[in-house]
Amino acid sequence: MKFTFRILSFAILFLFIAKPSKAQLLNDQASLKLIQKGLDHIYSYEYAEAQGILSQIEKKYPNHPVSYILDSFIMYWQYLPIKDNPAKSKEYVGKLNACIEAIDKKYGKNSTNPEAVFYTIVARGYIAMMYNYKGELLSAAGEAKKAYNALVTSLKLTDKNPEFYFTSGMYNYYVELYPEDHAIVKPLMIFFKNGDKALGLKQVDIATRSGIITKAEACFYLSHIYLEHESNFAKALTYSQKLADWYPENHIFNMVNTETLLLNGRFDDAEKGMIKLKNNNKGFYPIAYHTFQGIIQEKSVKNDSAAQKEYLAALRTPHDDQYTREYYAMSYTGLARIANRAGNKSKAKEYYKKALEKAEYKSIIKEAKAFK
Asked: What structural domains does the chain harbor?
């Protein structure tokens, strides 16, 4: 579940913005609006504009920890997937360490000042995310544990600020789900406060409607949750469509929304997104295009031969464990269905077995395991 620590990290990122406090920046409405505008630029790949806003914040609050956090957020999107760029990954982590140093300098080492605690959570949250991307789950969980006390505090603050519905909802949902899917971390999770998955979903939904700074991330992760864990494709579309409308130039949001439209059988509506994917032939996006074309050929056009070619093309295309791993599983399950219809059960079983090696979507796992 590669998304999990990214989710926790984003929750932490917005937590420090929303936290009611006597800190000057957090009471500065003009600066908060600038931060929100900067995030809009980042999601729209307008990095020069985002850097310009960051410069304004740095000028007003020199050497403030928030500058390092926002700078790292820009890097995360600009070089996505940043984990595959060693030089930029090193620079990225360096900014996070610089944030921790700025916290120590501004507030004192191991300060209990609320603002110092929250900025520390932000930096360590992103470091945890990098551990997670490398598959170092125990190290990632260890970093997250360092952020635990402050994050639990936010569970009591949803009535104070609507942004807290996102942080609280993410915690309530994933603190229960993560150990279910990763037995290796169960011993560590006993130290975490219990959550409530149903409550978590309700809270994040409130954030999509009431949050200002957190609404985009809330929509993104609810679409993911309903696709992967809840197998409720109609519900996922509620949130992915909002993102596609808000940020039409964002490739990740377009990819997820196109996938969700296809899984809902809305093939005509997915056409616009497919055109964008076809034109975006760099990085890990081609695997999405071929997988989605396979789905269209198989389920809409009803052409198994054409679908098979697309699925096989997808499997020859590089993927990313964070964003496009599931498209391998989708392609294998598509090939399995085609083989089964052709009367080749042994081949279908082989494809389903390969799908299970990649799959994280509960719907795909259920389909593969049900095949006899």
From this structure: 4-231 (no CATH), 234-370 (1.25.40.10)
Phi, psi of 361 (to 5 degrees): -70, 130
**Is the previous residue joined to 179 through a cis bond, with omega within 30 degrees of 0?**
no
Calculate the CA dihedral of residues 343, 347, 351, 356 and round it to 10 degrees. Answer: 100
Nearest to 311 by CA among 321, 324, 323, 298: 298
* CA–CA distance, 134 with 280 (Å, rounded to integer): 26
Residue that the structure tokens 């544990």 belong to: 145
| 3-state percent helix, strand, coil for the chain, nearest multiple of 5 | 75, 0, 25
Question: Could you tell me which residues come within 8 angstroms of residue 64 by beta carbon, excluding any fewer than 6 positions away?
Answer: 25, 57, 58, 102, 106
Q: State the Cα–Cα distance between residues 191 and 196, nearest whole angstrom.
A: 16
Choose among 277, 271, 269: nearest CA to 251: 277
Q: What is this structure's pTM?
A: 0.86
Residue 303 main-chain phi, psi, to 5 deg: -120, 95
Distances from the Cα of 278 to the Cα of 55, 113, 263, 303, 320, angstroms: 36, 50, 19, 20, 18
Is the bond preceding 248 in cis, omega lying within 30 degrees of 0? no
pLDDT tens per residue, range 168-206: 888 889 888 878 877 776 776 777 788 899 999 999 999
Strands (E), the chain: none
Predicted confidence at residue 179, as pLDDT, reads: 80
